[in-house]
């Protein structure tokens, strides 16, 4: 195996947003070429904007099947796609943004992308037309949070997780549609720091309308969807929301192929439930990201060593996985394979359920603090990270800021993380005694098929036992489906990926009711700080707020960051162009630029 120069995939806060055109593979489509990429999650939705569909796997497929106004490269920085359309901030007071789709941009069925698609995107991701106070209740699966079934008549609820005080939630008023029906202009009710990053790729409004309203003609369907949004008519809009929420969720090839329409370089051509997704170059594609490889198979392999073995046998061509000693040794034995190693954008952490836990013990702050005092972070780093990183590694000491970015070092000095630097068994016992608790049971959810997570769980269980905790096993291969399930577990051990360049990106994780707040954590001060981050435009003040948020999370024993996950990306020498990014869709962000050469 050849090892290329090590790269550090570290996000830098305050990066300038660029305005260049998306990169394009110079070569044309190479007919008959096929590539297989190992991924660790299964695809289950072509709408990653829902709380259920928001996964790296779905975002990866979406990035290849949909073009949009912008994407994020491996710098990481925003890259505008001028071949799709353009957007501009036309005013700062009030904040006003205009999006325009280029003439000739079409869905893969030939239907034009236009203002109807943009309006649907606004109403779903702002929730401006949602029925006040409505929660899906029994419609939402208790474990996966997937909304199943139709909403009650005249009830509108878009499952995007949007809040009225941040992001598109600040666009309360109906956007203005241009006369040529290719632009919408949105006016924010307050300043918003991350305005450039909040408008995700859209679903086809004509398909949503056909499914929701029983129409067959694309033009009529678009008009009906736009009319429902414009008028706020809750009858049809309720049905539109139901389709948007769950109509694009599927784990095998749907009978209705319109659910898989594309504006991007690839279309979905095959799905094996839980196993793989096959993508084929879109023959109707006219955008800038013209692909070279005709067929791409995204094959789910959850076990990193199994993925390496598949690379060695030629069953897969590219993989990206957390680095372990076993993975490094296995890759070293392979021939005709090139590897890149570095620190990825994912960090391991353990969160405790502040409410609705299996045992209820963590409702008490002192019990949360006691448990976190006996999590052996340094031992984990010494045994799981340093052997594969090469240099001595240290735990991550911030829930909010990334090591090496402005504000991180200062935050660590004052955020309270020092209290958790070493295992403190006497301190944990004293906290349990003060809480009047003995032998508290803690069931930990983790990915039981992942060897590293098994090691982490084992180390935690042994250490916590010294303070009197009874740590039990809630591990599951399908752990992701159980995140947030009420009364199912007490603590969760998993990885967070750096979600975006947005300074407000952590809001959905830490604020009350946030779409990524799986631990039922709720704190008024945290809510106030996350709200302030969303509207603060001054970089220095943004860092101050992030540091304040960091301290609040440590003070309230939200959980523990453990360590940044070392990542290795490896590919067959027949593949060129692989350049992983720390941000979703990570490895797949520039796949259209990859090429294969079977003569190598």
From TrEMBL:
GO MF annotation, one: peptide transmembrane transporter activity
Signal peptide per UniProt: 1-24
Coiled coil: none
Family annotation (CDD domains): PBP2_Lpqw
Entries under Gene3D superfamilies matching the protein: Dipeptide-binding Protein, Domain 3 (3.10.105.10), Periplasmic binding protein-like II (3.40.190.10)
One Pfam family linked to the record: SBP_bac_5
An example Gene Ontology CC term for this record: periplasmic space
Superkingdom of the source species: Bacteria
GO biological process: peptide transport
Protein name: Peptide/nickel transport system substrate-binding protein
Species per Swiss-Prot/TrEMBL record: Cryobacterium roopkundense
